[in-house]
Each structure stands twice: as structure tokens, then as C-alpha cells.
Design a protein that fits this description.
- With 387 residues, this protein is an alpha+beta fold.
- The chain folds into 3 domains: 121 residues, Schlafen, AAA domain (Methyltransferase, Cobalt-precorrin-4 Transmethylase, Domain 2), CATH 3.30.950; 68 residues, no CATH class; 168 residues, Heat Shock Protein 90.
- It contains 11 helices and 16 strands.
- Strands 10-9-13-14-16-15 form a 6-stranded mixed sheet, covered by helices on one side.
- A hairpin with a 3-residue loop joins strand 11 and strand 12.
- Helix 2 crosses helix 3, helix 7 packs parallel to helix 10 and helix 9 runs antiparallel to helix 11.
- It is globular.
Length: 387
């Protein structure tokens, strides 16, 4: 890091990725800051800068050793940071760069921390669950829904699913065999000697998934202008099982998207939509499959504006996936749901859906852009017609 880069970071102040500390910071406090960055997206701790952004400098000769000892002895599991010494106006600053961790880290006494804006915070129970799931240490979609019972599963729907994969139907006359098969399919799961639907099983095969999880839906809106203040064409809240929601969302867009009618060989009528349906389908399926379901109260949202189409999915990218490598890597945040949707034919297991979506857009002169919301709380796919 150059002096110019460091001065620019200090000038911008503390943020979700930058923290200022003086050299007298307590090791437990420093460990908490390190853990909060590692459990988020990584960040930089500048030692020798006070909260107001004044360069105080470090005079301790053992400051680097102090930081390493905190990282190795107070942070669990231990990490190795990148430490740089930068001199500004004869004052030394230690820039400690913390990478995003692949597993949840904790500080002394088993305390977990997360980064919220420019501060470290103790996570709520829900945020802790989300952290473990994001680090691939918890399969949320296979966890039991305690309030639900096996009676909430639509057995005829499961049989139609199995028939589509050319598998034998469930034996409804044999209760023991029926429950065994549903457990095998990860539709039911056992907890304290009691069977409950799994979250993924309820979402895909439940009689009414929104009874237990109202935000497991898709909110659709079409507008005449380029923002929410423009006139509303149509809005709809889509509920039901995963496959029903996907098809209803596509139907909504077909009703509201501009389209052209052409004749093939002057005989057969062909409808062409503003955005390719196959690319839209892929975007909706990915949003429903890979969203972070530990974020309650947030729905998948689809917005059709005059100049673009947006699909917004709660939660950032899952563990190890970035905007740069997502085209070439495969990772399912909700593996059971992904498996069910693959059985329905919505997904393929080779992980080529994103590339296929981009190519189908390019063939129609459509730009397909992926981005993250503020604090990585939302994954956004934007389709826009190229000029």
C-alpha cells in the first residue's frame, strides 16, 4: 500500500471495510475487530489512527508481533494477516489486512462478531445462523420446520415429481414405508423422535409454504417509467410451491413485457418478447434456489421498468463465490432445493446456467449484468437492451 492510497483511505473514514485503532488497543478488542472483518467480506485495520482519522502513529517496537499474537492466540481458528508498515510524516502506521474467512471465526470466550456498517456487533441468533450457512457449515434447507407436520406435505405432488423422473410412486398404504421414503428424499427430517417437513421439502412440496414462511414468495411489479415513482402497470404477490412461483412469475412478465408478432414463412405466428424468456427463467430459478432463506421478511423481487428488468434475491453470494468467478464455479447455497429443482428440470447439475443465460441475452442484443446490493445484502440480475 502506498502513502497516497493510505491517505485516501483515512480521508474516507471508517466503513464496513475500514477500522481505525490506536496502538494501545486491548488485544480482546482487536481480536473482535479482526473476527468481524473475517466473518464479513474482509477489511483493513489501521493501527496508529484515532477514531477522528488523526494520524497518531505507533511507537511500540513490538507492534507487529502484538498483532500476530492476537491473530494466533485470541482469534479461533487462528489466522495469518497481511501486515504493512507505512510511514507518513515520520509516523508509522500498521495496515492489517484481514481476508474473508471460509469458516466462522470467534474471539476470546467463544464470542462471534459480524461487521455492521462501521462497527463490530454481536450477531443475533438469526444472524449467527445466516453466518454459518454462508460459510457452508449449515444446510438450512434441510433443517426441520418445527411448527409443521408431515400432513403439510402434498403427497400427490411428490408422486407427480417422481413420475417426471420415471421413479416409482410413494406407497401411501404403507405408512412406515411412506415416511422412510420421504426421509430418504429429504422432504421429511427427524428431530427428537418426531418427523417434521424439511424447509426445502415444505417449499417445494408443501400444501401451503407461505403459511409458515410468508416471505418465501416473489413480489412482481411492472412500471411505465424507470423508477418506482412512475405509473404502475401491474403488481402481484406470487405464492405457492417453488415450481408454481417460477411459472407464475414468467407468466406475469409475459403479460407485461413488450412483444412483437412475426410470421415464420408467412404462415406461423411467432411471439418475440423484449427479454429472452429462457434467460429470465434462469434468473428467476437461480433467485429462488440460491437466495438466503435465513433472511426473514425479505422476498425475491422482480421489477420491470421501461429501460430494464431486475431480479433481486435476498442475501449476497454464497461461500467462495464472487462476481468475478461465478461464471465458472458451481455452488448451491440450498443443495436440497437445488436437487428438487433439478428433478423438475429447472436446473442442470453442471452449473452452466449463468453462461447459458448470458449467451441467450447476447443473441438478442440484451446486456445481462450481475451486482450486489449495499452491504452485500442482495444479489441483483439486470437485463437491459443494448443501444
Amino acid at each position: 500500500m502506498t502513502q497516497h492510497e493510505l491517505i485516501e483511505i483515512i480521508r474516507n473514514g471508517e466503513s464496513s471495510k475500514v477500522e481505525f485503532k490506536t496502538e494501545d488497543v486491548h488485544p480482546i478488542s482487536l481480536a473482535g475487530e479482526i473476527v468481524s472483518f473475517a466473518n464479513f467480506e474482509g477489511g483493513i485495520i489501521l493501527l496508529g489512527v484515532d477514531d477522528a482519522g488523526q494520524i497518531i502513529g505507533c511507537v511500540r517496537n513490538d507492534m507487529e508481533e502484538f498483532v500476530i499474537n492476537v491473530c494466533r492466540n485470541t482469534v479461533k481458528p487462528s489466522i495469518i494477516p497481511v501486515i504493512e508498515k507505512i510511514i507518513i510524516n515520520d509516523r508509522m502506521i500498521l495496515a492489517v489486512t484481514i481476508a474473508r474467512a471460509d469458516i466462522p471465526l470467534m474471539a476470546s470466550r467463544g464470542m462471534y462478531y459480524i461487521r455492521v456498517g462501521s462497527t463490530k456487533q454481536i450477531p443475533t441468533q438469526q444472524e449467527l445462523v445466516r453466518l454459518f450457512q454462508r460459510k457452508n457449515m449449515l444446510e438450512f434447507d434441510e433443517s426441520p420446520v418445527i411448527r409443521a407436520s408431515p400432513a403439510d406435505i402434498d403427497i400427490p405432488k411428490v408422486n407427480r415429481y417422481l413420475a417426471g423422473m420415471e421413479q416409482s410412486p410413494l406407497d401411501e398404504d404403507n405408512e412406515k414405508a411412506l415416511r422412510y421414503d420421504l426421509i430418504n428424499l429429504s422432504i421429511l427430517t427427524e428431530m427428537d423422535d418426531t418427523l417434521h417437513p424439511s424447509f426445502g421439502g415444505l417449499l417445494v412440496f408443501g400444501k401451503n409454504p407461505q403459511k409458515y414462511f410468508p416471505s418465501c414468495n416473489i413480489l412482481c411489479g411492472a412500471y411505465r417509467g424507470n423508477d418506482f415513482l412512475s405509473e404502475t402497470i401491474r403488481e402481484k404477490d406470487l405464492g405457492g410451491t417453488a415450481d408454481e412461483i417460477i411459472e407464475d412469475a414468467i407468466a406475469f412478465l409475459k403479460l407485461t413485457m413488450p412483444q412483437e408478432d412475426t410470421l415464420e414463412q408467412d404462415i406461423r405466428r411467432k411471439v418475440s418478447y423484449q427479454y429472452p424468456i429462457e434467460a429470465i427463467r434462469e434468473g428467476i430459478v437461480n433467485a429462488l434456489c440460491h437466495r438466503d432463506y435465513t433472511i426473514t421478511g425479505s422476498s425475491v423481487r422482480i421489477f420491470l421498468f421501461q429501460d430494464r428488468l431486475e431480479i433481486r434475491s435476498p442475501g449476497g453470494l454464497p461461500n467462495t463465490i464472487t462476481l468475478e468467478n461465478m461464471l465458472f464455479r458451481q455452488f448451491a447455497r440450498n443443495q436440497a432445493i437445488a436437487s428438487f429443482l433439478s428433478g423438475y428440470g429447472y436446473m442442470e447439475r453442471r452449473g452452466k446456467g449463468i453462461l447459458r443465460m448470458i449467451r441467450s441475452c447476447e443473441a438478442k442484443g440484451i446486456e445481462c449484468v450481475f451486482s450486489l446490493g449495499s452491504d452485500n445484502d442482495e444479489f441483483v440480475v439486470t437485463y437491459r437492451k443494448l443501444p
